[in-house]
Amino acid sequence: MTLKTMLAATALGLAVAGGAAQAKEWKSVRIAVEGVYPPFNYMDKGELTGFDVDVAKTLCTHMKVECTFVVQDWDGMIPGLLAGKYDAIASSMSITDERKKKVDFSDKYYNTPAHFMAATTSKVGDTSPKGLAGKTIGAQGSTTQASFLDKNYKDSTVKTYQSVDDASADLASGRVDLVFSDKVLLNEWMKKSSDGKCCELVGPDMSDPKDFGYGKGVAVRKDAPELLAMFNTAIKASLADGSYKADNDKYFPFSVY
Amino acid sequence: MNLELLQAYGPRMLSGLVTTLELVFISAGIGALMALPLALARNSRSRLLSVPAKCYILFFRGTPLLAQLFLIYYGAGQMRGPLDAFHVWWFFRDAFFCALFAFTINTTAYQAEILRAALGSLPRGQTEAAASLGLGSWVTLVRVLLPQAMILALRPLGNELILSLKASAIASIVTVPELMQATKLAFARSFEFQVYIWAAVIYFLMVEVVRRVWILFERRLTRHLVRAAV
Amino acid sequence: MGAFQLLSFGPEGWGSQLASGVWLTIRLAVATLPFGLASGLLLAIMINGRNRMLSRAALVFTTIFRALPELLTIFIIYYGLQFLIQAVVDAAWPGTSIEINGFLAGLFALGVVFASFASEIFVAGLRALPKGQAEAAHALGLSRGTAFVSVIAPQLFRLTLPGVGNLWFVLLKDTALVSVISLSDLMRQTTIAVSNTKQPIFFYGVTCLIYLCLSLVSGAVVALLEVRTNRAYRGAR
Fold first, then answer.
1. Would you say C116 and C41 are in contact if contact means Cβ atoms under 8 Å apart?
2. CB contact under 8 A, B187 and A161
3. Of A24, A72, A193, the CB nearest to C182
4. How many domains is chain C partitioned into structurally?
5. pTM for this entry
6. What is the pLDDT confidence band of residue B6, given thresholds at 50, 70 and 90?
């Protein structure tokens, strides 16, 4: 074989690969969740559960596909998707322009604001960058909240954690002065955790789309537009037929959409 | 090499590098000071000294450093009350100090074991000869045994320093902003795999520099032996 | 809750989770060992061989993976290897997707590190064997393969056992690092138990003791092997 024919063969091979990916018919979908983000996704007696998981199951029913769940650390979420370890992420991931450069997002399936949490004894009133100058703030790494702190709270020390739970534990023991995360998540932690009584929410809801994204969506690889379309159709259908509302009401007394 | 990426995350990785070096060299230094008394206790004829020393060395060499670090970091969080009472909470509050503490007590165990083995491999005749010359046991240790043991221990101690340098990456897991944490942050923001390659190159260079400097150091300390051999 | 309850195997205790973690840790370490040993030996033969290109390449490989933090090696292999293999598979068998799961990635990463250190030990071991042995085997008409298996390898095993035993301890402890790539080993299961019970001292303490037991048992096995392999040499002294 000459070099030219080899190149041609390789090009053909790649083209076939591209074609195959496009024509792929989805019968089973692997979905990644973090598993330590209650009440959205968490392990309960060894079983993966939570709002993200239930919504994903509902969507899968609408899509008529078999879904399996993969637990993946938050830091490696998008790299794992790009590497093909799973086909979609349904793990409360905010739809941001930064992430859209690497992956595609479905329409939002819920949206909740971010919020500060501090010790009840701390008497933090002003949560502006000026008010928190000199304070130590904990957040989960690789999140919109961590990026927001990094960009705007230059006079505070920002510590990034593997999970929000680790950050909250350090708030309870006094290693950080505040934790910045999702409001619903923080509320759940204060209610359920044995350390939860230490702390309270402070400051206003924060939900500017340019900082915190356009709600939470399902992320898929850019080479799977047909999967994305399936998710979008399923989200619309589940909103219309009440199955989304059933999932919502199972976890929250209010609408998170 | 992507210049924009370097501009965005280079400074953070550089300051991470400084933190890594601080962590490694301070813990190795303090460890070196504590290793000798521990090695002597381990070799002591008094069981009151040797048994606890043996247990200490066994525990810290027999368990993963990651588990030790978690035990100290999260354990300190649980023990906040008592630690506050002893006025040491400010120390354990800081992730860097926790990591420094864990690395120090860990490397102390490894260094002590190296010294113990080196001291133990010296012929008994040395001690006996020193005693028959009328030297006290302290003088025998400092002037006769230690200089020889240190030469034997030099290479394994260098290896231990390199192992500590590599192990320091796990401090990233408890929020210490060292090189590995800076790299993970850069990767999480940019999704550019090359930042891991940068980190690999930096760690590789650090280890190579330490290794080569150590060889020079070793040659200098043992030059009298080389001449004797020729 | 008392210590007994926390470690019980019932729904309230964490005994079964920890046990499954221990099982995964042991499986990972045991599965990595043959892979690491075989690759280490291969690298050592390459380094000792006459082909300079191969020898150089093997040396560079081992020097790099001896110098990188294990944590970094695990990350690089977990994310990097997947991209690489997927690219190869896409080119060769279009349309198929292959998945490197956490266990395989962990095994591969730990194995590469193990092999890099083991090659150093094997190189020293091979050099310690007198050249005459290979020549004598050749004179007896043994093929090179037979000579290696029945003459060189048994002696190499005895010479390198202490070094390899040491690497096994390192491997056992390094398995704790795979918890960062979401593998449910002992370390990760412990972390989950801690985040649920808020008892870090108790659980990390127990986990340290479990690792210590694994180390002690391995130490006893290695010591037994050393006695056995050195049996033939005791009389000769």
1. no
2. no
3. A72
4. 1
5. 0.88
6. confident
